[in-house]
Amino acid sequence: MTHPEAEAPAGADVLGPDRLELGEGIRWTADHGIVLVDILAGRLLTATDRPAEPFRHLARLPVPLGAVAPVADAPGTWIAAAGTGICLLTPDAPPRWLARPEADAARPMRMNDGTADPAGRFWAGSMAYEADDGAGSLYRVDHDGTVSRVLDGITVPNGPAFTADGRTMYLADSARGVVRRHPVDPATGALGAPEVYVTVDDGSPDGMVVDAEGAVWIAVWGTGTVRRYLADGRLDRTLRLPARQPAGVCLREDLLYVTSARVGLAAPGPYDGAVFTARVDVPGRPADTYRHHSPDRRDPDSPRKETA
Q1: What is the pLDDT of residues 207-227, one digit of tens each?
Q2: CA–CA separation, 100 and 83 (whole Å)
Q3: What is the dihedral angle through the alpha carbons of 127, 128, 129, 132, rounded to the nearest 10 degrees?
Q4: 58 by DSSP, 3-state: which?
Q5: Is the bond preceding 160 in cis, omega lying within 30 degrees of 0?
Q6: Which residues partner with 248 through β-bridges?
Q7: Residue 176: what are its φ and ψ, rounded to 5°?
Q8: Sheet of 23-29, strand order
Q9: pLDDT in the model for residue 299
Q10: Positive or negative, the Cα torsion across 218, 224, 283, 234?
Q11: Alpha-carbon distance 108 to 265, whole Å?
Q12: Which of the residues 95, 170, 220, 267 has an alpha carbon 20 to 30 A from that of 226?
C-alpha cells in the first residue's frame, strides 16, 4: 500500500556510464528491450542487460530525434518523431519521411516526445527551438500513414501517455506546468474535451508513463524528482534522484527507468544526464507498436499529406 506524498526509498541505481545531453523517449520494447533517445544528438540507443556497459547505437540522424515506436511486423523498423516531421527508420537505409509538417513554420521548429497508442497509431508533439509560447502542436499518424495535426497552441508538449484501454491520453505542456487528460475514441483516434489532471508549481512535467493501476509516473524537470500521481490527480509518492533534470520515464515490469539531461546546466554534476532505475510496487507494460494497414496496398513508406 502506498501513502500520499511518501518518499520512495533511497536506492535508485545508475544504468551504464553514459551521460546524455538530452535523454528522453525511453521505452520498454518487446524486441529491443529498453530504447531511448539523445534528442539533440539525433541518437537512438538501446541498453544492455549488463548495467555497467555503455548504451549501443541503433541509429543516428542528422536532425534531432524526439522519440520512436516500434513498427509491428517489421523487425528493426521504427516510426520516429524527428527533425520537422515523422519518418520511418529501417536498418542500413536513410529515413523515409511520411510528412514534415513543421518544415515551413514561421520559426525554427523540431519534433519532441511521442509514442504509439494501444490502437496502433503514433502520436508526437512539436515545439519551437526557443520554446516560443503556443508554437507547438500534437500530431497523430493513422494506420494508413496520414499525419494530422490534432492540437495546436501548445508550448512544449511531452508525453503523450495512454491508459491500457487506449481511451485516455495524458499530455503535458511542460512550459506551462500542466498535464491534461484527454478522452480518446479508440476506433477513430478522435480526442474529446480535455481536463486538467495535474499542475506543477515547482518544475516542469516532462515524460510520463501509466502503470497497471492507472497511476501516472511523471518526470518533473528542474526538481530532481519523479512523481507518481493517482488517477484522481493526487500525489502518491516521490522518487528523488541526484540529477536536476529528469526527463523521460518508462516501466519494465516493476523496474522504473528514468532519463535525465545535462543541456542548459552551466556546471553539470556527476549524475546529470544519467539514466536511473528503481524498483516500484506496481508494474507497467511494454510500449505499444505502430500498426500500418494499407487497404489500397500503396507503399507504406510513401509520403502522406499532412492534414489540419
Answers
A1: 999 999 999 999 999 999 999
A2: 8
A3: -120
A4: strand
A5: yes
A6: 259
A7: -100, 0
A8: 23-29, 33-38, 43-46, 56-60
A9: 41
A10: negative
A11: 22
A12: 267
Written as one letter, the residue type at 170 is: Y
What are the grid coordinates assigned to 53, written together? 556497459
Retrieve residue 38's grid coordinates: 539523445
CA distance 125 to 110: 9
Instruction: Find cell 487497404 and name the residue.
Output: 295
pLDDT tens, 1-21? 333 344 433 569 999 999 999
Contact 217, 249 (CB under 8 A): yes
Q: Which residue has the higher pLDDT, 61 or 11?
A: 61
Residues designated as active site:
206
Q: Rounded to an integer, what distance in angstroms lies between the CA atom of residue 161 and that of residue 21?
A: 23
State the DSSP string of 237-305: EEEE-S-S-EEEEEEETTEEEEEEB-TT-SS--TTTT--EEEE-SS---PPP-B----TT---TTS---
- The strand ranges marked E within 20-121 are 23-29, 33-38, 43-46, 56-60, 65-70, 78-82, 85-89, 96-99, 109-116
Are 137 and 165 in contact, with CB atoms under 8 Å apart?
no
Q: What are phi and psi of 278, to 5 degrees?
A: -155, 140
Cell 487506449 found at: 166
Q: Cell numbers of 117, please?
A: 497508442
pTM score, two decimals?
0.92
pLDDT in tens, 239-288: 999 999 999 999 999 999 999 999 999 999 999 999 999 999 999 999 99
What are the phi and psi torsion angles at 91 (to 5°)? Answer: -60, 135
All three cell numbers of 257: 527507468
